[in-house]
Design goal:
elongated, Alpha-Beta Plaits, Transposase_22, Rec A Protein, domain 2, alpha+beta, coiled coil, five-stranded antiparallel sheet
Length: 289
């Protein structure tokens, strides 16, 4: 027990010595710091340095104010420019919207005008075709005589047979197409208007039945007179017409451009397009094989 008490006393003694030495060290440091501190600055020198610092701060503040004022002026100018641009863009957008509305209206009017144009064109072609209903077109007819009407009356009667026309054919007018040809050249086409539509149909029927027609050793063709637009619509059927003729069938057109194919009493077909006619011909040939 005595030994433990002695050890405890020794430990307390060591702690006291350490604490005392620490206080002495701090005291010595404080004394050294006090001895090394700078000497106080005289009052006049301190005022001069303070004035210089204040002057530098004032000058710097003035410069910063000037720069901020310039920056503010630039920003105001930029803001005014942006406002002006915004107004212009708004005006352009409004004008663009107005133009779009006008374009939409113009497109609608254009579609309506296009429909009216097609309708009027169809009517004009129909009126032209009706005005030509009593016309016949003669190709290969020699250019004889000075009076086309009288020549046409005698020519048709002699070509198709006087027995078919107990009374003279009444021709309202007749003329040649184009400029006069050279001597010995190809004769111009003659157009003749027959006074009676029934007589005109009779002439065309007799011309088909008596094909080929010849006059003064020349081959003569007589056709109905149609507008160019109608002939253009019939042009795509030419190739398939040749095929039908090779197959021994008769072909003709129904106004304005429908192909009619006949063969005896068994075949009597009407086609609106060349493709339909070609398909029928293929099926016909397949059944014949």
């Amino acid at each position: 027990m005595a030994t433990r008490r002695e050890q405890k006393q020794q430990n307390n003694y060591k702690k006291a010595l350490c604490a005392n030495s620490g206080r002495e060290a701090k005291a010595s440091i404080s004394i050294e710091d006090t001895d090394n501190s700078p000497e106080p600055t005289p009052p006049m020198e301190a005022n001069t340095e303070t004035s210089a610092i204040l002057a530098a701060i004032t000058d710097l503040s003035k410069k910063m104010d000037d720069r901020f004022n310039n920056l503010e002026t630039s920003l105001q100018t930029m803001q005014a420019t942006l406002t002006d641009h915004d107004d212009r863009i708004s005006t352009l957008e409004a004008a663009g919207s107005n133009h779009d509305a006008k374009l939409t209206q113009l497109k609608q009017q254009w579609r309506q005008l296009e429909e009216n144009h097609k309708l009027l064109q169809h009517k004009v072609i129909d009126l032209e075709a009706r005005s030509r209903r009593q016309n016949i077109k003669m190709v290969g007819l020699p250019e004889k005589g000075n009076n086309p009407v009288d020549f046409c009356v005698s020519f048709l009667r002699d070509l198709l047979g006087p027995a078919h026309f107990p009374t003279p054919i009444e021709v309202d007018r007749a003329h040649r197409l184009g400029q006069p040809s050279d001597v010995g050249g190809r004769p111009r086409v003659m157009i003749a208007r027959i006074h009676s539509f029934r007589v005109k149909e009779k002439i065309l029927r007799l011309a088909r039945e008596n094909t080929p027609l010849t006059y003064d050793g020349r081959r003569i063709h007589i056709f109905p007179d149609f507008p160019a637009e109608t002939l253009k619509r019939r042009q795509p059927f030419e190739e398939v017409r040749k095929k039908f003729k090779e197959a021994g069938m008769r072909t003709g057109f129904l106004y304005p451009a429908r192909l009619r194919v006949t063969k005896g009493a068994n075949i009597d077909k009407v086609f609106n397009t060349p493709e339909d006619a070609d398909r029928f011909l293929l099926s016909y040939r397949a059944t014949r094989q």
